[in-house]
Design brief:
By secondary structure, this protein is mainly alpha-helical. It has one domain (4-161): Up-down Bundle (AhpD-like). It has helices at residues 4-26, 57-67, 74-79, 83-97, 104-118, 121-133, 138-161. Helix 1 (4-26) runs antiparallel to helix 4 (83-97), helix 1 packs across helix 5 and helix 5 (104-118) runs antiparallel to helix 6 (121-133).
């Protein structure tokens, strides 16, 4: 493929986003930016401020600065029960979304498409908010959603029909 770096970055953002959203959805965590913090009831209780290891506070400050919020998204609060895992996960997210060949704004659009495909309310709220904050227009958001829907449709049809890839040399 021409310019493999674009595809590697796209795959990295997709993988990192999918992993984080799978965790958030499986725990039924409150939505990060929805009014009233999202009305969903978490599967597990999130640690209160007084239960947190003080070592996570600088990580939380970094997360809040990155997302432009004062209340760290619930998935990171959940991960704070294991400060090392929180740090590693946050480092992975930052690395995946770092500006390289692709800019963060574009990567937030990829992540929004992943959230559409994953049917993740948490991810839809997080990545739509971030894409808009970084300058994506409502028209751009619609384009991402429609593209994700289109590919979900084709993928589901191919799955149901048990189709094989058209390019047999790729295994």
């Amino acid at each position: 493929m021409e310019n493999d770096a674009v595809w590697y970055e796209t795959a990295f953002v997709t993988g990192a986003t999918n992993g984080l959203l799978s965790l958030a959805e499986s725990l039924v965590l409150p939505l990060p930016f929805a009014a009233a913090g999202g009305a969903r009831q978490p599967l597990v209780p999130l640690p209160a401020d007084d239960e947190l290891d003080r070592g996570v506070l600088p990580i939380f400050a970094d997360i809040n600065a990155y997302y432009g919020t004062t209340d760290v998204p619930a998935v990171y609060r959940y991960l704070a029960s294991d400060p090392g895992y929180l740090r590693d996960t946050w480092n992975t997210v930052q690395a995946a979304f770092a500006d390289r060949v692709l800019r963060r704004k574009f990567k937030e659009c990829i992540a929004l498409g992943v959230a559409v495909a994953a049917r993740s309310p948490f991810g839809l709220d997080l990545h739509r908010t971030q894409a808009l904050r970084l300058g994506v227009t409502e028209k751009g958001i619609r384009e991402v959603v429609q593209t994700a829907q289109l590919f979900n449709t084709y993928t589901k049809i191919a799955d149901v029909l048990q189709l094989e890839p058209d390019f047999p040399d790729v295994t």
